[in-house]
Every structure is written in C-alpha cells, then in structure tokens.
C-alpha cells in the first residue's frame, strides 16, 4: 500500500512538473513574441532547426517529379524501381493495370512508407504529394486564360542514417537508375501523350501498324526506313556539325492514305513514344515551349492537320494586323518555327517532328524548308502494290485469279487504301470479299466516267453559248435588216 502511495505521489509530481514546464514555455514564447523583433526570432528558430538537424542521425534526400519544367528522370527511375520491391502487406496500396496482357502494377499511396536494403544498409522511402499554385497564362482549369491554377507536386523522400550518406549518393541512387533502365527495356510499352494546359498526359500506345503491314509504295517505304535508321545512328554527327539531333517529316496527301498509320509504324519501328500535340489547346507561345521541354528524348512529336488546327499568323502580314491581334491568345507562326527549329528545339535529343496535312499548298513555305521538314512524304492513292499488301493483311493471300482485274481497275480510279481496306473487311470469305472489291471499283469507275461526260457536256454548252454571243456582237448597231428597208 505504501509503495502504491509513493507511485501516485511520483506521478503527481511528474504531471505538476510537466505542466509547470509547459506554462513556462508558453510564457517565454509570449515574452519573446512581444519583445524580440521577428527578424531575430527567425534567425533564432533557424539556428535551432540547424542544430536539431546537425544533432539528428537521419538524413533525407528529396526527389521531386519535375525539375523546373523538365521531367526528373531520377523520379521516374525511383517509381519504377520501388514498384518491383513494394510490400503488398502495406496498409494502403495503389494497384492498377492498363493492359490486359500485363500483370498487376503496385505502387505507393500518398503518405505510405516502405523500406529497401542495399548493400547491408536500410533506406526508407515515402511518397509526398502537395498542391501548389502556379501563375501563368492559364485559368483555373489549366486550359488557358489569365490567373493562377493548382498543380499537384509529387516527390519521393529517402531517409537513411547519416553514416550511409556516401553509399546513398554514390552507390544506391546509381543502382536505382541502372535497375530501372533494365526494367523498362525488358517491359517496354510505348506511350502516346496528349496535351492539356501546360502538361502532358499519357496512355499506352497499342497501335499495331508496322512497315511490313503498311500499304504504300515499297520504294517510298524503304526510303523512310533508311532515313530513320540513318538518323538514330548520327548522334556524334549532329554534334559535330552543330545541329540539334532532330528530324522533321511532312506527310501529305488525301484523307485515308495512311498518314496516321505511318506515324504509328515509325513509333513501333524505333520504339519511340508519341506526343500528339493539339495546337487548339495551346494559346500561348510560352506554353508551346514548356510543352517541348516536358517531352522525353527518343520521342515523336506529331501535329496532325497542321493547315487547319489553328489559324497561324503569317509573318509577312502588316504591323496593324499584328497589333490588333496582340491582345488575343494566339500561337504565332514565328512561335511555331522557334518551337520546331529555334533555340528551344535543342532542349532534347533524338526527337522526330511530324506534320501531316491534306493540302500541302496551304502551308507557309517557312514551315517546309529543310531543317524544319527535312523529308516530304507523299501519301498517294492506292496502287497495285498497296492493294497486295492489304489483301495479305486481311485475307492472308499473296495471289488470286481476280488480281489482274482489280489491279487494272485500281490504275483507272482514285481509291484510298482506307476504302480498299473497308471493302476487304466486309466478308471473311476471300472470294466474296474480292468480288465485292471489283464491284466497288467498277461503280467508282462508272461514276468517274459519268462525271467526265457531264463536265464535257457543260463545257460544250458553254462554248456554244459563247459563240452565239460573239456572233450577235459582230452585227453593227446601225445596220438595218433587209426586210425592214423594203418597207
């Protein structure tokens, strides 16, 4: 009983002492806030924080998702590396699968922690997310306008004992980079990015197009492949001649001739990600530059239908027109040219830029010169060679009794590969599908001939009317008809 009373007294003294210390601390804090200038307080508190950090045995390395406007490659490497070492017994776990051919992907949830051991040393990881306001030429939803908008900033925090600092920086982080690179090479999934505001958003690219399945002239196809091969092998050459390591391609021709399929074939051939830039989503030249900086190396930038996505301001227009539009949100031609071939184009390496258009003649000549669009690829109507590729793709045949007739018809009418492919897909029976194609081509031929006859009829009618008018105009105004003079 006596020992129990002593314990109670000891507990009371401890509580009284703690309360007294807390009250004293609050009193001292109040006095300091009242009497000590805030500059001195900040200096004092920063000094105390420094002493606390120096006395702590733990060090922290922060790895943010972006560095300025550029992606932080170390952040991507850490995310890939930790996904293979994550503990599925964690209280909160993020699980996803974006491809049915892939296994489940595990990743850390915000605020969760995990440990990893490297060379006998323990390193603790934590995912941190915070919202920050970003000023610029965007509105609240990040789609343009003026004002601030919220941006989520994500980072990994790595904690470790201070005696492992050299190992963390000189061994562990390089190990993570090397391991992540191997993981990505083994399980490489191409991405296609879309722009929204000043950011890129990605999904997996599963387009099956390859050069072997692409319906186009063989010589033209081979020239594109040779040009791509030469480009990716010329890093030192581009450095020696003082040019950015990039290559521009203009794909032009009627709709349905395979321009998008060629882009996908290029991506699959080189294993490059695709950045599909929608210029109507970009209202400022500065946003255009930030998007370029945000692209990765080994990528293809695509601007489809460049002639009609935006009304680019021509550089040769008068100053008055430029001034009248200065207040509007416009991407100018000069801004686009600088994006493609100016100083900002050197912000990355091994990049391919592709423009597509149905009407090459509508483009400003400044966009078409070598150094911007280095190779112009004419995507034409279907030819006999293209037809054979499509027939092999859709019906796995290399020859058929109907081939001579079909190829002769294809030479006489203008039909796109997309139209031929659509007819071939209508029936799984090869004979029926090819017979359907023959009938389709004959209808197009008849329509072409009927249109030609109609045009010829109209032209002849106009010529006859013109001759009649000329005959009437040859009669002098004062000439009196013979019958009238007799009267």
TrEMBL record:
Write down the CDD domains for this protein, in alphabetical order.
RecA-like_BCS1
Q: Which GO terms describe its biological process?
A: response to stress
Task: Report biased composition (Basic and acidic residues) as residue ranges.
Answer: 459-469
Q: Which cofactor does it need?
A: Mg(2+)
> What are the boundaries of the region Disordered?
459-487
Q: What Pfam family is a match for this entry?
A: AAA_lid_At3g28540
Q: Which reaction does it catalyse?
A: ATP + H2O = ADP + phosphate + H(+)
Name of the protein? AAA+ ATPase domain-containing protein
PANTHER family xrefs: BCS1 AAA-TYPE ATPASE
Q: Which UniProt keywords apply?
A: ATP-binding, Magnesium, Nucleotide-binding
Q: Which residues form the AAA+ ATPase domain?
A: 245-383
Cite the InterPro entries for this sequence. Answer: AAA+_ATPase (IPR003593), AAA_N_dom (IPR025753), At3g28540-like_C (IPR058017), ATPase_AAA_core (IPR003959), ATPase_AAA_CS (IPR003960), Mitochondrial_chaperone_BCS1 (IPR050747)
Gene Ontology terms, MF aspect:
ATP binding; ATP hydrolysis activity
Residues of the signal peptide: none
Q: Which organism is it from?
A: Zizania palustris
Family under the similarity heading: Belongs to the AAA ATPase family. BCS1 subfamily.
Key word Magnesium present in the record?
yes
């Amino acid at each position: 009983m006596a020992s129990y009373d002593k314990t109670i007294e000891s507990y009371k003294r401890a509580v009284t002492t703690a309360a007294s210390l807390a009250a004293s601390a609050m009193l001292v804090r109040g006095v300091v806030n009242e009497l000590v200038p805030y500059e001195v307080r900040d200096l004092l508190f920063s000094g105390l924080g420094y002493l606390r950090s120096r006395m702590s045995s733990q060090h922290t390395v922060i790895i943010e998702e972006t560095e300025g406007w550029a992606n932080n490659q170390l952040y991507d490497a850490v995310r890939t590396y930790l996904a293979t070492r994550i503990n599925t017994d964690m209280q909160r776990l993020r699980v996803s699968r974006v491809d049915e051919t892939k296994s489940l992907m595990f990743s850390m949830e915000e605020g969760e922690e995990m440990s990893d051991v490297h060379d006998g040393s323990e390193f603790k990881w934590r995912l941190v997310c915070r919202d920050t306001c970003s000023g610029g030429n965007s509105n609240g939803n990040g789609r343009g306008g003026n004002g601030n908008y919220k941006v989520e900033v994500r980072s990994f925090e790595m904690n470790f004992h201070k005696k492992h600092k050299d190992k963390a920086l000189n061994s562990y982080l390089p190990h993570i980079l090397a391991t992540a690179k191997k993981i990505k090479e083994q399980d490489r999934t191409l991405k296609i990015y879309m722009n929204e505001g000043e950011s890129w958003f990605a999904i997996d690219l599963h387009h099956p197009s390859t050069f072997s399945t692409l319906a186009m002239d063989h010589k033209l196809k081979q020239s594109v492949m040779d040009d791509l091969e030469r480009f990716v092998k010329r890093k030192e050459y581009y450095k020696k001649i003082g040019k950015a390591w990039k290559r521009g391609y203009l794909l032009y021709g009627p709709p349905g001739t395979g321009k998008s399929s060629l882009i996908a074939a290029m991506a699959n051939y080189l294993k490059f990600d695709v950045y599909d830039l929608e210029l109507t989503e970009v209202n400022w030249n500065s946003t255009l530059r930030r998007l370029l900086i945000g692209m990765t190396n080994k990528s293809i930038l695509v601007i489809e239908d460049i002639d009609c996505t935006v009304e680019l301001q021509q550089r040769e227009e008068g100053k008055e027109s430029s001034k009248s539009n200065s207040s509007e949100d416009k991407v100018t031609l000069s801004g686009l040219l600088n994006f493609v071939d100016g100083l900002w184009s050197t912000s990355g390496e091994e990049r391919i830029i592709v423009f597509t258009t149905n009407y090459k003649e509508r483009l400003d000549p400044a966009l078409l010169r070598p150094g911007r669009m280095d190779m112009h690829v004419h995507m034409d109507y279907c030819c006999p060679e293209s037809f054979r590729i499509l027939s092999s793709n859709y019906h796995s045949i290399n020859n058929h009794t109907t081939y001579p007739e079909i190829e002769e018809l294809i030479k006489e009418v203008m039909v796109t590969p997309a139209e031929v492919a659509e007819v071939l897909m209508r029936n799984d029976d090869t004979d029926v599908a090819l017979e359907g194609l023959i009938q389709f081509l004959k209808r197009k031929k008849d329509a072409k001939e009927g249109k030609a006859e109609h045009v010829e009829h109209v032209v002849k009618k106009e010529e006859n009317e013109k001759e009649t008018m000329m005959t009437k105009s040859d009669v002098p105004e004062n000439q009196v008809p013979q019958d009238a003079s007799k009267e």
